[in-house]
Amino acid sequence: MLFLVSNIVRESSIPFLFFRDLHSHVSSVHHQGIIHRDIKPANLLWTEDRRQVKIGDFGVSHFSYAQRLAAAGGKDGQHDPDDPLLLDDSSLTRRAGTPSFLAPEVIYEHTTDVASSSSPIPAAGSSSSLPTVTTSPIPNIADRPEINKSIDVWALGVTLYCLLFGTTPFVADKGTSGTGSEFTLYNAICNTDWTVPHTMGYDKIVTGGRHPDPNCEGASIICLLDRFLQKDSKIRITLDQVKVRILSKLLIGFRMRPQTTAFH
Asked: Among residues 28, 74, 177, 239, which is most buried (max CB within 10 A)?
């Protein structure tokens, strides 16, 4: 029997080592050329003995022949590796998945040009969360970054943030209406930085803030999150760089906070 991770998190505090399993499963899926496109706590399933996590809901997933070919070392005895139809990943530009977990390159049209490159990215939810923009805030669609398996890495980072802090790192600006919109959410994802509460996890590990002192107890986790949540996919961490032994060292002993909110 399988249980939704998000439901179990709401019911009790549980070990956090399953993130290591999640990393392994996503790596395996990517090796087969599959990009999930909707990784989030609600799509993670835990076995009844709570020893293994599985990924569910591949309804919006995408098969990338180019990715599969690269994983196989560029060799395929059954298909023409230069077939343009097989190499076409243009469908990845069509928005799919859960808004709060979408990577910036998927919603690239919401990226704005900050007037001063020396100004820090404002924190999500702050009064200055909307940066000053030029007269042409919508970037040239021809400059859209490549959309590839890195979008799943971003979603893994958002999922890790959810499990540590009980909320998503980017939220819609509610404004005067008191309710947010997808537009303001996408603006936050593309143009604002994420904030870090004082403590994380069920054991309330001190985080040290957004840019913690290296000697702070939670600094290694925040630094890992920072690598996951890079808006530029070219410098975002890859799953190959996230070694299982590193995850074991970082996440052992951490416990997730019981949740009262489902992540849909």
From this structure: 239
